[in-house]
Amino acid sequence: MDWIRENKTLASIMGVFLALAAALGFLVINAWSSFGASNDRFIAANNALATMKSANLYPSPENLEKKKSAVEDYEKKVTTLSKVLLSLQPAAEPISETDFQAKLKAKIAEVRSISGKPTKLPGESSLGFADYTSSLPKSAAIAQELSEYVDAAEAVVRVFIESGVESVDTFERSLLASEKGETAVAPSAPAAPPKGGKVGVAGKGKAPVATKPVAEMVERRTLTFTLTCDQGPLQKVLNRLASPSEMPYFAAVRLLRVENEKNEGPLRAAVTLELNKNKAAAVDASAAEIPQEQVVIGTDGNPVPAAEVAAEATGPAKPGIKDAVGVMGQEKLKVYMEIDLIKFIDPSKQVAGTAN
């Protein structure tokens, strides 16, 4: 302390130098830590770049050729598969608007005639096409699509009837795109470059690649049902829908929800009441079968003993009193089912129609 008092100027200069050294050290440490973080990010980016360069999808000319070859091979396989599937589904027959309406009414009448044996259908069952019983489709093309739809819906209902479903409680269908007024739109062609200029992509000066229209190969038509049935008929329905010999149309069960018709068992009082009713009915039946006393005269003019008359009147044994009530396993199943009817479309015809 005495030295600082005696040398104030020198002490001030040394204090300033110490403060500058501390600040400089802090800056050095901070810069070193920033350098370490930047170096780590650089190394990570460099490794990622090296990984991308070694990957199969790196945008190099060699990989571009490989991708084109793989895409062409995939398109060939998809085209072959679509042709096979198109040959397996029922062929579409042209039909006029009036002929379609007549066909629909005949199908509805046929299904109603076989309903109730044993399957019960909704009261005014029209296979979901009630609108077309009083009005015609807008065009022959729509009538042709609806005709295929009607055939598939009827095939599904027949599966229910032949499988022994107790009742079809509700029946709904999805609308076709043509019924909604939707039309396919071809992708727009790339804009022509201005005179003396180039069309760039993201400022890189690369010309856009023209893409051909992509055709939809599958059209889904959904049928929604609520059924009442037992476990055996439900298994038959699922097996028949999945069997090509039983179901000529491609049908896929998209959603299936099953629950018991009764979620709770009967009360003990209800079971006791049912047993008492059975006993009372059995007692009344026994009392009605007791014969009145009568005298039977034989062929010789003498009365026949009562034992012989009782022996001759004795018939087959009567069933006993029902002394048990079913508690579980007597209820039916409530089934909610969504079925997708899958129609495969010819891609070449669709692209041609879209381009036109």
Written overview of the protein:
- With 356 residues, the protein is an alpha+beta fold.
- Among the domains are: 2-83, no CATH class; 94-181 and 213-264 and 332-355, Ribosomal protein S6/Translation elongation factor EF1B (Alpha-Beta Plaits).
- Helix content is 48%, strand content 12%.
- It has a four-stranded antiparallel beta sheet with strand order 1-2-4-3.
- Helix 4 (97-114) runs parallel beside helix 5 (140-163) and helix 5 packs antiparallel against helix 6.
- It starts with a helix and ends with a helix.
| Strand tally | 4
Pick out the low-confidence regions: 183-214, 351-356
Q: Could you give a short account of the major beta sheet?
A: 4 strands, antiparallel
Percentage of β-strand residues: 5-15%
**Average predicted local confidence, pLDDT:** 74
Order of strands across the widest beta sheet?
1-2-4-3
Question: What structural category do the secondary elements indicate?
Answer: alpha+beta
N-end to C-end Cα span: 101 Å
Q: Helical element count?
A: 9
Question: What is the CATH architecture assignment of the domain at 94-181 and 213-264 and 332-355?
Answer: 2-Layer Sandwich
CATH class of the domain at 94-181 and 213-264 and 332-355: Alpha Beta
Shape: elongated
Cα-atom radius of gyration: 43 Å
Helix fraction?
40-55%
CATH 4th-level superfamily of the domain at 94-181 and 213-264 and 332-355: Ribosomal protein S6/Translation elongation factor EF1B
The third-level CATH topology of the domain at 94-181 and 213-264 and 332-355 is Alpha-Beta Plaits
Question: N-to-C SSE series?
Answer: HHHHHEEHEHHEH
